[in-house]
Amino acid sequence: MADSASPVRIAACGCITPFGDARETHAALLGGACALRAVPVLGREGGDPVPLALMPGRSLDETAPPAWLPALRRLHASVPGGPWGSPGRPVFVTGSNFGVGGLYALRRTGDARFAVWGAPPTCTEELRLELGWGPDVSILSHACVSAHLGLLQAARAIESGLAEEALVFSFDFLSPFVAGGFHALKILNSEMPAPYRERAAGAIGLGDGAGFVVLSRGRGDWALSGLSLYNEMHHFTSNRADGSGFAACLEGVREAARGRSVWFKGHGTGTLDAGRMEIAAASLAFPGAPITGWKGGLGHTLGSCGIVELAVAIESMRQGRAPGTVGAGGAPMAPSVADGSFGTGAFDGVVCASNAFGGAHAAFLLSHV
pLDDT band for position 211 (50/70/90)? Predict the structure, then answer.
């Protein structure tokens, strides 16, 4: 499904990663930096070392209250406007994990303090009280397209006149439960990720990350259009082998981008089949567009990657240069993959795409108003 109304504007956007805010993250990626480090997959309980990007000073292990809460307070302090969660200014909270690591810690320790953070409704309510939001708060979670889903719902609220402005607030922080789950699937292993690179076996890295977007009808220099979501409903984890889901999702975005010169910010986790299918679909929909992805430096910020990487894309357009594909070596899967950074001055838009377990796909066009 894709929107058909006039574009909504981005009044404000920001993120936090292990590199810092959006500007610091953009600068680090331009320099080819990598925040991933080998960390025991189960934290203090050990296990295989896997590539994780944690916020400075934070361990993988859960605490009560969560050690990531101060980072969210700092991020929220940069959110303009409000009062949020009030009539006409709803909040859409997105992510794939929320405080699920708390349930793992509860099971391991028996400490009841972990329970309140362990499920999306209770975690979000604690966050609402912590950040001073009113009651108009919605929770949206659909694996790695969660942030895109929040952006689409917020845009619809504005387009329908139900909201003057909307805040989409997304966060995903790692825990032994999250890292252990991906490790069990064998796609999080001892190898560093190499997005869009040919290699013998795929591998991903995971990262802490959070971000926000304030959407408005008439305020802001950036516009979102062609917001598209498509779900293959094919398998618990994999995509259809013909790549049709990737192509179907990009149809609506291609219409929004007709007549524009765009670059393509892909999902690019480091898995092989999905990387090839994404490149094929992007190259068909947007011939000549350079393709880049940043999870080789940031790690995969899971359900929040759509907003974390949107903030970096905006910074790329502002600064006039986009980071190339960051990650371990190897031959690119196609000539369209941008190995190094490139200028954005010749482009008047960027297509931002994310993909998720089971063949869920999401994308939109970001352009200057």
Answer: very high
Distance CA 70, CA 55 (A): 11
Q: How far apart are CA 270 and CA 199, in angstroms?
A: 10
Strands (E), the chain: 8-17, 20-21, 37-40, 49-53, 91-94, 137-140, 165-172, 206-207, 209-216, 222-231, 262-265, 291-292, 321-322, 342-343, 349-356, 360-368
**Coil, helix or strand at residue 279:** helix
- All domains of the chain, ordered by start, with CATH? 8-216 (3.40.47.10), 222-368 (3.40.47.10)
- Distance between CA 275 and CA 281 in Å, rounded? 10
Question: At a CB cut-off of 8 Å and minimum separation 6, what does 288 contact?
Answer: 336
Tokens 């209250």 -> residue:
65
What is residue 6's predicted lDDT score, i.e. its pLDDT? 60
What angle, 0 to 180 degrees and rounded to 10, lies between the N-to-C axes of helices 120-131 and 69-77? Answer: 50
What are the two backbone dihedrals, phi and then psi, of residue 263, each rounded to the nearest 5 degrees? -110, 165
Q: How far apart are CA 69 and CA 162, in angstroms?
A: 30
C-alpha torsion sign, points 299, 53, 311, 181: positive
Cβ neighbour number for residue 77 with a 10 Å cutoff: 8
Do the beta carbons of residue 292 and residue 263 sit within 8 Å? yes
Of 93, 85, 32, whose CA–CA distance to 294 is shortest?
32
Distance between CA 299 and CA 60 in Å, rounded?
Answer: 14
- Mean pLDDT (the chain) is 95
Half-sphere exposure of 10 (CA within 13 A, CB side): 25
pTM score, whole prediction: 0.96
Instruction: Give pLDDT tens digits for 54-91.
Output: 999 999 999 999 999 999 999 999 999 989 999 899 99
**In a 3-state reduction of DSSP, which class is residue 86?**
strand
For residue 341, which amino acid is it? S
pLDDT digits (tens, 9 = 90+) for 251-285: 999 999 999 999 999 999 999 999 999 999 999 99
CA distance linking residue 55 with residue 365, whole number of Å: 29
